[in-house]
Design goal:
- The chain is an alpha+beta fold.
- It has nine helices and 18 strands.
- It binds adenosine-5'-triphosphate and ribulose-5-phosphate.
- The site of adenosine-5'-triphosphate has 14 residues, from helix 1 and helix 5.
- It is found in: Plastid, Chloroplast.
């Protein structure tokens, strides 16, 4: 990666952001930094430009829907563990591995927790988020330029001092709004939406917010209800743009199930996306219903059922792979993997190996872990194809 550091002057566009006064915690006043003027003001900004081939992946979901778990599976596919930036803000939301940087879009909240309460808006409301800055910074990183990204501190609810983010090979922007702003959406090389049904989302939030954050059941219920109008208005509609959707629903294998532990998971894959060939079961484009349990695979109640079929989703042609139920033993997954095609694995059993490597992650025994792992492999394949195509284009250009 050819890196050159240049001093650049650029009139920053009309970007402004709110932050709390870093000194007066009591007043919790928010200060509006001077709006960067459109005039030809000159800023000395250290910009690291690199001949960087950064691909950008967008992952959208509501809070508590498994984004962090998915990111751990994805970054593992590329090798290396993603860690918070060393020596930086201990409350940074960013994760960095040697190939991938994961940015949490909460960092583009334009209002802190107090500011949102004063303005009467939730964090899901576009009015509480700075899409101009999000667009400018994702565009800069995609073109190989480092940025000073703001930090939203989930511990204090304040907007902390920015952190320097270098352009990575793979940039993942995850959070509430990766596909909300058309400008940002157009920067994405691949996009995923985690569509968790209300029943399942509630069960996961209870498990986490009560067990790990000490919240009461009532406050969790109130929080989900309070966010629902904005979720329906601003978050859920993004799924129409996603190249892949992972739908998580209650099982259909247990009549009147009210435990919510056994899940039906659907991987909805858009057809015709460049460098992305949907996974299929047995025969591409056919309609298959398959119960793998029997002589070759032992299953306890309620067992496992796969479906595969062509479908349409928001007027797009898609292929849907569905798994209802859960594995008793993860090493049995190899039997299922051997009947799936277009997995973009580099060797036989790589999906099973990845799942076994993270057997302690939530969802490792059902379709959520399986499909998150498969999508991670598809993203690796997309990255390698994109890099190869850009190398070819550069070679052609050099010949011309
Ligand atoms: N596939 C799964 N099966 C069961 N529980 C899950 C699954 N994925 C995530 N969870 C649980 O849901 C909760 C939220 O998971 P996670 O932190 O990955 O979500 P998130 O979207 O990153 O949350 P937030 O946006 O609040 O940081 C955790 O308690 C986690 O254990
Ligand atoms: O929807 C969310 C995304 O994670 C959070 O609720 C939002 O970012 C506000 O965070 P906090 O509740 O910590 O102030």
């Amino acid at each position: 990666m050819a890196v050159s550091t240049i001093y650049s002057t650029q009139a920053l566009n009309s970007t402004h952001f709110l932050t709390s006064s870093p000194s007066s915690s009591s007043s919790k006043q928010v200060f509006l930094y001077r709006r960067q003027s459109q005039t030809n003001r000159r800023f000395n900004t250290i910009i690291t430009c690199a001949a960087q081939q950064t691909i950008v992946i967008g992952l959208a979901a509501d809070s508590g829907c498994g984004k962090s778990t998915f990111m751990r599976r994805l970054t593992s596919v590329f090798g290396g563990a993603a860690e918070p930036p060393r020596g930086g803000n201990p409350d940074s939301n960013t994760l960095i591995s040697d190939t991938t940087t994961v940015i949490c879009l909460d960092d583009y909240h334009s209002l802190d927790r107090t500011g949102r309460k004063e303005k009467g808006v939730t964090a899901l409301d576009p009015r509480a988020n700075d899409f101009d800055l999000m667009y400018e910074q994702v565009k800069a990183l995609k073109s190989g330029v480092a940025v000073e990204k703001p930090i939203y501190n989930h511990v204090t609810g304040l907007l902390d001092a920015p952190e320097l983010i270098q352009p990575p090979k793979i940039l993942v922007i995850e959070g509430l709004h990766p596909m909300f702003d058309e400008r940002v959406r157009d920067l994405l090389d691949f996009s995923i939406y985690l569509d968790i049904s209300n029943e399942v989302k509630f069960a996961w939030k209870i498990q986490r917010d009560m067990a790990e954050r000490g919240h009461s059941l009532e406050s969790i219920k109130a929080s989900i209800e309070a966010r629902k109008p904005d979720f329906d208005a601003f978050i859920d509609p993004q799924k129409q743009y996603a190249d892949a959707v992972i739908e998580v629903l209650p099982t259909q294998l247990i009549p009147d199930d009210n435990e919510g532990k056994v899940l039906r998971v659907r991987l909805i894959m858009k057809e015709g996306v460049k460098y992305f060939s949907p996974v299929y079961l047995f025969d591409e484009g056919s309609t298959i219903s398959w119960i793998p349990c029997g002589r070759k695979l032992t299953c306890s109640y309620p067992g496992i059922k796969f479906n595969y079929e062509p479908d349409s989703y928001f007027d797009h042609e898609v292929s849907v792979l569905e798994m209802d139920g859960q594995f008793d033993r993860l090493d049995e997954l190899i039997y299922v993997e051997s009947h799936l095609s277009n997995l973009s694995t580099k060797f036989y059993g790589e999906v099973t190996q990845q799942m076994l490597k993270h057997a302690d992650f939530p969802g490792s025994n059902n379709g959520t872990g399986l499909f998150q792992t498969i999508v991670g492999l598809k993203i690796r394949d997309l990255y390698e194809q994109l890099i190869a195509s850009k190398a070819t284009a550069r070679a052609e250009a050099a010949k011309a």
